[in-house]
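Handout, page 2. Input:
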Amino acid sequence: MQPIAKIVCLAALIPLSCTAVTPAAEEPSIHEFAVVGVAVGRACAELYPFKDYTLQNMLDDPTLVSNEELRAEILKVDKGPEFQLAISDAQAIFKGEEQYMNTMCPNYAPMARK
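Output:
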């Protein structure tokens, strides 16, 4: 499974875990992908500051983000003040998921380390 697909799966599961009864899950939007991608990158950078994990490293890897629309949305979400609360909320959830973070964080490493 590609790293972005893993992010989407987790993004789709988070809202489901917060409700007792859930309707059929819809496919996450480009915006939701972007929020999750930024949140995971920031969580990785905070949890492992010595590993040089950055959002830009992930964006520089064409195998991870080949969709230009997603790339543009990630950059917009990362810089937009109106998205920071959503990013912080997602980031707090991801920091508690050690196995997920151990899987995802290497995608934010510099290309030479991958």
